[in-house]
């Protein structure tokens, strides 16, 4: 019941249409909180540990970054920190090419779904990956939302959903508050879906109605039930994807 069956976002029609100069702006306007958090940490620290590089790197791939853009993006940021160009080329570039299916088994790795982010590889000290609604301390989450100018009433709503373990619904509420809509009209289950829907809305490609359709209601109920039961399942049931990712993780072990 926890397997993700939606689009895998491995192939995007907009590949190469996003410039590296746009990413800072996009991270504020159209990234879900988990990816916005990773982007800010990368800009602040000029480094992400392997869990963060995997989660964020595959997301960026999914929104349209080419392999060449990804290599440039990560290299520019890492050499601003403690990693010189030679070390990056020898240690990190291979793992990026690997995630694009250009090394090793040539597996074209897909961006993580919400369920995978919530259910597997929880962050530890010094990590910035994971789901902020699931893995952040509520007080720290509250402070983060305040810094992003979320209204107090909205923060209260989000924290109530988090308290009830409705993590994806909390993310949907975050979408509604940051896009100034009453109801997003779809069931949110993938960070790349969040980005796509945000861009579509901001470009005037879809209208969000205040009234929820019957199908929308049933989706939300289903999503709510799914979120309620997240803690009851110890691991993601998407075992095939997990097995594939083991190969990729081997190349991301260097912090």
TrEMBL record:
GO terms for biological process: DNA replication initiation; DNA replication, synthesis of primer. It comes from the Eukaryota. Residues 243-255 have a biased composition (Acidic residues). Its cofactor is [4Fe-4S] cluster. Residues 228-241 have a biased composition (Polar residues). Belongs to the eukaryotic-type primase large subunit family. This is DNA primase large subunit. It comes from Steatornis caripensis. The lineage of its organism: Eukaryota, Metazoa, Chordata, Craniata, Vertebrata.
């Amino acid at each position: 019941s926890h397997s993700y069956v939606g689009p895998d976002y491995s192939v995007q029609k907009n590949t190469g249409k996003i410039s590296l100069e746009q990413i800072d702006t996009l991270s504020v306007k159209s990234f879900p909180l988990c990816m916005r958090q990773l982007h800010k940490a990368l800009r602040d620290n000029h480094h992400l540990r392997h869990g963060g590089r995997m989660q964020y790197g595959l997301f960026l791939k999914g929104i349209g970054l080419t392999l060449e853009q990804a290599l440039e993006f990560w290299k520019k940021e890492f050499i601003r920190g403690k990693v010189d160009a030679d070390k990056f080329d020898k240690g990190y570039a291979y793992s990026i090419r690997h995630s694009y299916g250009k090394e090793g088994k040539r597996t074209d790795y897909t961006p993580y779904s919400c369920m995978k982010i919530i259910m597997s590889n929880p962050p530890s000290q010094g990590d910035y990956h994971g789901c902020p609604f699931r893995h952040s301390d509520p007080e720290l989450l509250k402070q983060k939302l305040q810094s992003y100018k979320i209204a107090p009433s909205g923060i209260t709503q989000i924290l109530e959903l988090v308290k009830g373990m409705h993590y994806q619904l909390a993310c949907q509420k975050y979408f509604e508050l940051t896009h100034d809509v009453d109801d997003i009209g779809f069931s949110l289950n993938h960070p790349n879906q969040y980005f796509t829907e945000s861009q579509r809305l901001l470009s005037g490609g879809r209208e969000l109605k205040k009234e929820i359709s019957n199908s929308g209601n049933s989706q939300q109920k289903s999503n709510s039930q799914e979120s309620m039961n997240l803690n009851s399942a110890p691991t993601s049931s998407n075992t095939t994807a997990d097995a594939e990712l083991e190969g990729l993780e081997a190349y991301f072990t260097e912090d």
